[in-house]
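Hey all, sorry for the wall of text incoming. These are the two entities for the joint prediction.
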Amino acid sequence: MNCSVTGKTPIIIGWRIHFVLLISRQGKVRLTKWYSPYSQKERTKVIRELSGMILSRGPKLCNFIEWRGLKVVYKRYASLYFCMCVDTEDNELETLEIIHHYVEILDRYFGNVCELDLIFNFHKAYYILDEVLIAGELQESSKKSVARVIAAQDTLIDNAKEQANSLSNMIAQATK
Amino acid sequence: MALSGMRGLSVFISDVRNCQNKEQERVRVDKELANIRTRFKNQRGLTAYEKKKYVWKMLYIYMLGYDVDFGHMETVALISAPKYAEKQVGYIVTSCLLNENHDFLRLVINTVRNDIIGRNETFQCLALTMVGNVGGREFSESLAPDVQKLLISNSCRPLVRKKAALCLLRLYRKNPDVVNVEGWSQQMVQLLDERDLGVLTAVMSLLVALVASNPDGYTNCLSKCVYILERLTKSQDILQEYTYYGIPSPWLQVKTMRVLQYFPVIEDSTIRKGLFDVLHRILVGTDVVKNVNKNNASHAVLFEAIALVMHLDADKDLMSQCVALLGKFVAVREPNIRYLGLENMTRMLLVADVSESIKKHQAHIITSLKDPDISIRRRSLDLLYGMCDISNAKDIVEELLQYLTTADFAIREELALKAAILAEKFAPNLAWYVEVILQLIEKAGDFVSDDIWYRVVQFVTNNDDLQAFAAAKAREYLDKPAVHETMVKVAGYLLGEYSHLLARRPGCSPKEVFHIVHDKFPTVTTPTKAILLSAYVKILMHTQPLDQELQVQVEEVFKRCENVVDAEVQQRAVEYITLSRKGSSMVDIMAEMPKFPERQSALIKKAEDTEGESTEMSATKLRQQQNSMALVVADPGPANGGLPPPSEQLALPEPPPPSVETAAIPKAYVNGTSSPHPSASTNGDLLGDLLAPLAIEAPPVTTPPPPPSQVDDPGDPLALALYDQQVNQIKPIGSIEDWFRALSLKDSGVLYEDPYIQIGIKSDWREAQAKVVLFLGNKHTASLVNVRVLILPAPHLKMQFSQVPDTIPPRAQVQVPVEVVCLSASRETAVLDFSYTTSTLPVSVKLRLPTLMNKFLQPAPISASDFVAHWRALVGPPTKLQDVVRGVRPMPVSDMGDLFNSLHIGVAPGLDPNVNNIVAATTFYSQAGATLCLVRVETDPSDRTQMRLTVASQDPNATYELKEFIKEQVIDIPVAPVPAPAPSPAAWGLTGPAAALVGLI
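and here's what came out:
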């Protein structure tokens, strides 16, 4: 017999955070990050379904909604809703504070972050998120440490830009 | 506004924001997409900066909801750029746009690997992050050793190592084989000594996954985890930056406690005592504070501690502390804490005998049932359901009923079902039960299935003292202005049987009863009409001597029904007219229904079986319960008056009863619901019992053997319907068809899932051979028995698999490895014939296995000259076949190319100068060897629903099968008609089990 029977094995090992969504009060998507494999079609459907559910919820309700056998933890900051989808067994308050942790990091980086910052610098929102979460798991709980890494990255990119600028200047000079 | 650093990007975003409406936005976006497309096509003069800018723009456009598939290639290509600035964009945008199943990711595995093993730390970070976020199975196989090395390396900085830990976690999830338990568990112990809390947090996440799937392999980590927890809770040597609102990394605390919940027991008494101290400290030391975030963080830790205490279930004091805390939480105003209080209290019911202490909080819990927040209402409903027993059933069910009137639609069905189950399970007396169900039908008739009212009828029939009461109640409900059809059914039935017991009450004379019931007649559906006809004849029969006036009215109704199209109604009408003229013999035939044999409700039995183990009521469990309710009545067996059990599923056709001259309408007999003598109900369907209007005292009729043609005829529609009914009692929680479709493109995933079992598939395809592993996971808290797995291979496949144990223990998983060898080309698939029995129900399903032709294909890279040479060498049929395919699902050529690639038919871009054509090559592997297959598709840009398809290969069979396979993939079956004749199994040329399935699907 070639079969193994093991006790208490979860059938498919769960993801912590399946996806992260940032939706504006008008239902515009400001950031999406998918850690579980969703196809493009599913992604569109999920966004449509969830933004409908979340935007219609009144204030002073709890920060959790049960959805398709999963749980969505969300929190509204000014005009933006930050949502993270987790398994039902996951710790909801912990996830809620991951959201806040991310928001604090954004706030520190942009200095009083607002929706416009995240619209015009959406790429930064993405790479900051990559320093907070990987594979749907919290990567770094020290804000200072994240800030250091982001600053280093910015320097690298700025250097590259200066180089490029000076290069194009040189070319421009040379071809005058 | 902060500067984005890229002017073009900011300008574009501003433009989009300034659009007045969606249409303007679309125009602006299309313009931009066209620009990007041209720039990508003609790369000359495209600077690195521009490339970067365009790729960011694409991400922005993608977020707006537009398709940017055309740019995937350019995005992925940036990963290979030498400079950090471009590489970063490539990595980040790739991981946002693509998922692990995209083929483009394969193209960069090498680059990614070089970045990971290279010396450049920033590149390492980018690569690890991307793989951690979207890495699939192939990444898992080729990168895991390198990632492990980085994690345990002494020379890497924490920044890299924490990313490596989470990256490894992702790779492990994709393929658990990448971590070898024996060697790795020792490494994990050492990693737990890590001083950097960032790395430790990541390592702990990894440990959660490792321990979850193999608790025994990592017991050596246990003491370290307890030590870490002690250190955190005592704030010993924790850097300021790792405290969150004064709490030492709440996330690490939660994760550590999560790990501890996967170890079955803690044997070492010192460790245990240490852990208990920590838990005690958390339970008593968590106070409510003003700051929301601090409060959330400390309560996140507290709830995890409660979960851990429940898991350990070893210390009475800790347990009662938890109950006290939860009692406090279900009464607070703060919605999050109340939600979690309700949720955890429900969990608590599962593990410990705490129902008495929880009952003290019943009032608060009921208040939450009326909360404005549906999330909280759901939790409250679940908890009330779980805590209900004989002592409080009356209060709780009445609360649920009251709430039902105002409940929103989203929760009604669940509510109605739960009320019905509780009413049956814990009814203090039967009158109450009958009343509850009638109320339930009134308030939520749509959600009260027939089984529930059948059960009411059974109870009433068997309890003489209930009959007058039930009939009176039914009469009351019919007076209401709007009456649900289910109410008409149950009231019609009860009044037909028992209204004579009320005859002296005002408004209850036979005539009045007849009129009030008949008022509903025009608005109800035919099955209900049939029940009402029986009720009329019974009401009439009870007026002895016969009420002439009533007889005239009733007969008039019957006469009108004599010509009804529905055979059931027609037959009853014809028979009852005849019977009603029989005078006193009618009294014999129409006497009251005899008592039903006492039988235990399958629902109650189930509830007893799982008592103390499962009181939680999730939506899926509810469905199971509902199914078991169905069994109450679908239970084939002597249902009435000790009749012999049925030997056939199909009702036996009965000869016409002697009293009816012309009513022998064979069809009506076949369904067995109305034959006017008791043996008709031998079909074992209680519906038969309930609807058969006549009493057992009728003259016995010997049953001649049934005409074989009707019994054996598998084409009988009713037989099929009955069969389906049985199969469908446990429904899959998703679409089998969707799962299959997903698996036809993927190597692993879910094949089937219902509330009890999940069948997953993992497969590894190597040319003509494949290793497929079926994972049968019991999701339930009871064993699944009579497990039978049969694989019906298609003729072109050789399949071998080992025996499967008869029983799957609770929450356990069985793996069934299957070896597949492809012998020849075919579009058919093998079929898995799978069955099992839960505590009550047999379930049997037939599932197609994704052993599709494309699994034995591999894209063949081919040069233009080779292609042309091969193409020319194959001149015509049977090695080269051409078809014009109509009814194609309209899609852009690029999408069709993607579809081909995903089917392993490798598109060779640029080989055909015409952009509307696709040329592709693939190698088909069978035991006989490899066959190169060439494909050419010519599409018509003006009509995307048709195309010309040419397939060529040395092997005529492979050519034909591949051509047909591609057709199946591109044709949109539900919308457009298939050009081929009607898809009967024979017409599709299918043989074997797949053909049998076609009929079923």
